[in-house]
Amino acid sequence: MTLAMAQAVEAPSGDATPQTLDAFLASISARAFRFAELGLRHRDDALDAVQDAMVKMLAYAHRPAAEWTPLFWSVLRSRIIDVQRRRTFRLTWLAPAPADDEGPIDWADPGPDPSRANDSREAYARLAEALQKLPARQREAFTLRVLEELDVETTARVMGCSEGSVKTHLSRARDALQKQLEDFR
After folding, report:
1. What pLDDT is stored for residue 124 in this prediction?
2. Is 149 left (phi over 0), alpha (psi -120 to 50) or beta?
3. How far apart are CA 181 and CA 183, in angstroms?
């Protein structure tokens, strides 16, 4: 079966799953980048991880469209873990000092209400900062269950643990986030 034929696999009627792998990857790219950036805390590494995960997904184009979501998140999660492991063994003292030209993220918004846009940016920044303080498993559980709205079973498959572990990690993440963001309400 050719790649074009595999990508043309139709999703069941009434299902929100994109009909082609290209459409699926396009629909998930921004969320995947945010997930990777929170896990890796480095923009370029996050872009590389997402790109690698998307390229790897091309090998699974023949799979049914309903399997793409959990499969993609599993692949991306594995890629993030690989990058984190590589970082631990990197000999940073041999590398040149990084240029500090990244600066703050440009949050410019052409929206009509600057006050609401500022509040949204501030809320996202606070949430991202709070998520970065969580242990990796709690952050993954929260991101996949709450932000990506995956069910418990799918989240457990992606994380490689039991459904009970997902629920425990999610509960602890919610408690920690509530404590961190309590003054922000």
Report:
1. 80
2. left
3. 6
With a threshold of 0.85, does the pTM exceed it? no
86: confidence class by pLDDT, cuts 50, 70, 90? confident
DSSP string computed for 95-156 = SPPPP----S-------S-HHHHHHHHHHHHHHHHHHHHS-HHHHHHHIIIIIS---HHHHH
> How many Å apart are CA 34 and CA 23, to the nearest integer?
19
Question: Is the separation of the CB atoms in 39 and 84 below 8 Å?
Answer: yes
Token pair 């990857």 is at which residue? 25
- Whether the per-residue pLDDT at 51 is higher than 70: the answer is yes
DSSP classification of residue 12: P
Q: Any idea which residue has 């896990």 for tokens?
A: 39
Ramachandran class of 41: left when φ > 0, alpha when ψ lies in -120 to 50, beta otherwise? left
Q: And the tokens for 3?
A: 């790649």
- Residue-averaged pLDDT of the chain: 80
Sign of torsion over alpha carbons 10, 11, 14, 15? negative
Amino acid at 41: R
3-state DSSP percent of the chain in helix, strand and coil, to 5: 70, 0, 30
